[in-house]
Amino acid sequence: MTAELQRSAPQDGPEGAADGARAQGEPLLSASGLSVEFTGRGGRGTARAVDGVDLDLHAGEILALVGESGCGKTTLARTLLGLERPTAGRVLFEGRPLAYGARALKGYRHRVQLVQQDPAGSLNPRHTVYDAVAEGLRIHEGATADEERRVADALSRAGLRPPERFYLRYPHELSGGQRQRVVIAGALVLEPEALVADEPVASLDASVRGEILRLLLDLRADLGLSALVVTHDLGMAWNIADRVAVMYLGRVVEAGPVEEVLAEPRHPYTQALMSVLPESGAQEPQVLAGEPPDPTRIPGGCRFHARCPVLASGEAERAGVADACRTQDPGVLSGSGPARVACHYAALGRAGD
Amino acid sequence: MSAPAPSRRALLWARRRAAWGEFARTYAQNRAGLFGLAALAAAALTALCAPLFIDAGELAVTGGPGGRFEPPSGEFWLGTDAFGRSVLAMVLWGARISLTVGFLAAFVSVALGTVIGIIAGHFGGWPSDVLMRVTDWFLVLPSLVVAVALAAVLERSTLTIIVAIGVTAWPATARVVRAQTLSVEARPFIERARALGGGHLHVMKRHVLPNVMPVVLAQTTLLVAEAIVMESTLSFLGLGDPSTISWGGILQDARSAGAISSGIWWYMVPPGLAIALVALSFTLCGRALEGVFNPRLRERR
Question: What family classification does the UniProt entry report for this protein (chain A) (predicted)?
Fold first, then answer.
């Protein structure tokens, strides 16, 4: 989608939402009021792929970003890496705004790494495993004397042992899980502080998924690596993440520690997502009507109201928030702190507690 | 790299040999390609060894060993020309210039086309627009006219011919390479390279170039054929280097000696056939290579 579209001029920046943020030290990587818009060719319609997001990733933390396809998760991840420029808002690394000069970006990319969705496509078919892993080292440090040791180290950390056996393999000779391990090794070789993983296991077998997720957890334990894991799989978020942010149509609608958000979802959207998980034990799976709306035509009021089961069932009407749902934007959630939700109905429930 | 280095290198070589074996097997399935390769090898060998069995002195205008326009005989298999030189010896000798010019001119134009194509495909936006408009401009210019103009303006030498052909033949390569670059750039490993911190040069050199190389190679063989024909054309039009013997030059001499009206076929036909044969062989090789490098065939490996 994004390749077809061009960036547009900045529009109104979203207002920062005030929420009691739990003091947790300075976040390592954060988004502040981040928006990314794409303009169709010939200026037809502006797609607000990311529409005002505050998100904090702290050191040593795994944050899961979940949501349906097309909700802007991947665009947000790419923007955090500087692969896409925000139309409004900022990306902050260690509290400093990300600079987009060639040299500054290169330095940044030494410290934050990307793991892509499709391990088959993310390795150059003409490079051996050794070349693929050593690529980052060569870019940043040129040819170093201990290159081979560091490549071997990264490969064995990523679970490819003994590493020498894999040096001269080509990607097409490896299995999907092995390829993803090579990609992870290529990221690890630079000893990054944070990893942005975009659907790291979506294209892998269920049996391999567990191994790769285990690997992410081990890396966090051993190296103190922070990770932002983009996924559409709530079960996976449940298994590996410390915190979770649920995204709908370019905005985070519910965020907080994973136990709180996923055990007791308060946003109707999160509730619906949870109810269709087989292991959630929900009485009645709640299938949302229709597709997510087109990001070029984001509905007014709460962006979820057109599909919201709470509003459709008339419960919101009884609680007296139906008008607010249709007309008032619930606002942007802050990046860190306790569980928060952008929903008029849920806010009412919390007040009544 | 101390202890494990030799084994790694040996392994790498073994893998390369295997890859070449695979390549050769696929190529050998194409009969026409094999024929082209054999004909080319013969032509190249002739060009290289010509000085061993042909006395250069006998090719000078004053050193012809035979009489004027002798028809083919036991001594002169393809007869003699106006100065008593053996036509066979001249045609064999002419392979040297034709092949040299063909290869060098193709190399110049392919290098130019590849660089321009990769830059246009990689950067997109206005640099691509500008480069592609220039390419289009060269594409619609009648290349023969441009080459004639260049060869006429610059001093007469083989180098001039190479430059004239190289400068006019690159647009097709640039177009093909740009298209291939666009398709390579859309693949995720380019984004991975960028996220690793790789700059434009890194992406173009390490990722795009190796992946457009098959197309470039096939394009080169096709262009050699074009360059040989173009060189002959320029020589035939009298724009070649008069001090060297080339196939186009022989044809030009034959025409000006009135070979057509006098029915001296042995002066005209052999150089013409030589041009056709070598150009055909290169085209056959190029087609066969394209078949081997076909992405769908490669993906299956």
Answer: Belongs to the ABC transporter superfamily.
- Residue A32 or A11, more confident: A32
Backbone angles phi, psi at A89, to 5 degrees: 85, 180
**Full set of structural domains in chain B with CATH:** 21-300 (1.10.3720.10)
So what's the pLDDT on residue A43?
65
Looking at residue B300, its amino acid is R
Comparing alpha-carbon positions, the chain A residue that sits nearest to B16 is A168
What average pLDDT does the segment A209-237 reach?
89
What single string gives the DSSP state of each residue in A119-182? TTTSS-TTS-HHHHHHHHHHHHH-S-TTHHHHHHHHHHHTT-SSGGGGTT--GGGS-HHHHHHH
Residues A27, A335 contacting (CB under 8 angstroms): yes
Tokens representing B12 are 């790498």
Contacts of A106 in chain B (CB under 8 A): 197, 199
Is A126 in contact with B211 (Cβ distance < 8 A)?
yes
Q: What is the pLDDT of residue A22?
A: 37
* CATH fit for domain A25-40+47-241, picks 3.90.76.10, 3.40.50.300, 3.40.525.10, 3.40.50.150: 3.40.50.300
Asked if the Cβ–Cβ distance from A139 to B196 is below 8 Å, we say yes
Percent with pLDDT over 70 in chain A: 90
Beta-carbon count within 10 A of A274 CB: 22
* CB atoms near residue B24 (< 10 Å): 10
Q: Report the gap between the CA of B190 and the closest CA in chain A (Å).
A: 8
Q: Where in chain A is the domain with CATH 3.40.50.300?
A: 25-40+47-241
